[in-house]
Write a structure and sequence with these properties.
Elements (H helix, E strand, L loop, with lengths): L2 E10 L2 E11 L2 E7 L5 H8 L7 E6 L2 E2 H4 L1 H4 L2 E4 L11 H11 L4 H14 L15 H13 L5 E5 L7 H14 L4 E6 L11 E6 L2 E6 L1 H7 L5 H9 L3
Parallel strand pairs: 3-8, 3-9, 6-7, 7-8
Antiparallel strand pairs: 1-2, 1-4, 4-5, 9-10
Helix pairs in contact: 4-5, 5-6
The chain binds adenosine-5'-triphosphate (ATP) and magnesium ion (MG).
Length: 238
């Protein structure tokens, strides 16, 4: 189970959103840290094939994901940063719909959906329409749909945005539990979201990977006391 990215580049016109990005991902939690505009979502959108790359390769166990196409997409769970949602759907109807889109077996999906509602603490609101949900509740519905089908690669683009401290903590602990035998991407600009759970932290700036390592390695490299110091040392100048 290996996702190898080589020299991946994405341009929007003259703007280089991602520059020669290379990294090998094996099961674990990867904290992708960077300021607004650093290229985090662009990287996630390239892995999900939502945007077209200009150069480079993304290989899943040796085969480019563009070749694998639908069979690769089946392995993905994606929680997008933007909250476009179906306001007239109830949360449960939305998850059922997403399970259909993913081609999951209905009976199994329905059972998993109820487990997921429990997990994201929305059991009592599952029958209500998404249009009436708060921002944090929507985040949790988006997380739940990403987890449908037990994906081997889980992409969480700013999953904690808009969550209150209690839900943020719950989510963090939950993500830590999820990491076994899967590759989890977690983008954020909030250092504390990944400090305790990331196996590796990737620091991005202006579309480039500027540094990576375990939280401890990075903290030592700047002789700091926490990842906040690491962030300021490597990314603080922008
Ligand atoms: N659809 C697009 N069209 C033009 N430029 C884009 C587009 N999407 C992203 N960009 C540019 O690419 C760069 C990287 O954007 P990206 O969304 O990947 O950053 P990010 O690290 O996810 O930021 P944030 O923390 O704000 O989510 C930015 O300069 C952005 O303006
Ligand atoms: Mg983003």
């Amino acid at each position: 189970m290996e996702l190898v990215i080589e020299h991946l580049t994405k341009k929007y016109g003259e703007k280089v959103a991602l520059r020669e990005f290379s990294y090998t991902f094996t099961p674990g939690i990867y904290g992708i840290l960077g300021a607004n505009g650093a290229g985090k979502s662009t990287l996630m959108n390239l892995i999900t094939d939502n945007v077209k790359r200009n150069e480079g390769q993304i290989l899943w166990d040796g085969t480019d994901i563009l070749k694998l196409s639908a069979s690769f997409r089946k392995l993905l769970g994606y929680m997008p940063q933007q909250q476009g949602m179906y306001s007239d759907f109830s949360a449960r109807a939305f998850l059922r719909y997403m399970a259909d889109v993913k081609g999951l077996n209905r009976k199994q999906a329905n059972r998993q959906i109820e487990e997921l509602f429990e997990l994201v603490n929305l059991k009592d609101a599952a029958h209500k329409k998404l249009g009436g949900f708060s921002g944090g509740m929507r985040q949790r519905v988006l997380l739940a749909q990403a987890l449908l089908g037990e994906p081997q690669i889980l992409i969480l683009d700013e999953p904690t945005a808009g969550l209150d401290p209690k839900e943020r903590l719950r989510l963090r602990q939950y993500i830590a539990d999820l990491a076994e035998n899967r590759i989890v991407f977690l983008t954020t600009h909030i250092v504390s979201d990944i400090e305790s759970i990331a196996t590796d932290v990737l620091l991005m700036k202006d579309g480039a990977l500027v540094r990576h390592g375990t939280p401890d390695e990075l903290i030592q490299s700047v002789q700091g006391k926490d990842l906040e110091d690491v962030y300021m040392a490597y990314l603080g100048g922008s």
